[in-house]
Amino acid sequence: MDIDIEKQLKELQAKVKTLEAGNNDQLSMVVFSGDLDKILAAMIIATGAAAYDMKVKLFFTFWAISALRDPKKSGKGKNFIEKMFGMMLPRGAGKVKLSNMNMCGMGTAMIKGIMKKHKVASLPEMFKTAGEIGVEINICEMSMNLMGFKREEMIDYPKMTVCGVGTFLSDAQESKIQLFI
Amino acid sequence: MTTEELKNLKSNTIVDARGTACPGPLLAAKKGIGEIESGEIMEIYSSDEGTKNDIPKWCSKMTHEFLGIVEEDSYSRLFLKKA
Q: Does domain A24-180 have CATH number 3.40.50.1980?
């Protein structure tokens, strides 16, 4: 009988441990969209969560990776198609466009003007703040390969890692909040 | 606390987040709180309307004590005591 109780106690302890692990003060977010407005929303939530002392982990995949490109840098050893992709996709956070009302760039230019007027931080500024406050950025390696992006053409950012979906899933499992933008 | 009591309160630090938009005041608060000791008073200046809702919520999450708001002409002064 005594042995049974001990066994049950151990099982319960293990259960509590897994439950606690899924309830960390952590936010995991997939940033998929390459649109200015959506990435801006993602970064506002991310930096806000960091102000709440949450651990924040962003998983950049597909079109969103364009926003992490440094316009002053370029990747080496690209083939023809990769070079074409590189030319056609926005070169960095300053070049991504609105999801709606872009109007050949007029809308995007207008919203940037309005943002300045309302003292809303620009996307490059948001990345800088996020880096300073400890927001982690993970970049999907597969998407990078598909689009022909190289690690060396990404912005200088304190906590930036190239990884796979496993990293996102582990992070998401440990997080109170998970989002996909 | 009443407005009069708040006006007479001596803050240990003042964080001026006027002219920044969401999430600027929150980030400024987070930065400022690191510079004071537990039990000390911090005052945040903000011209962003949403801050008046955000900071009390932030305080309850971070277990700081929110003391109240004093309205000035073009901005608000928000008071809190560090946990």
A: no
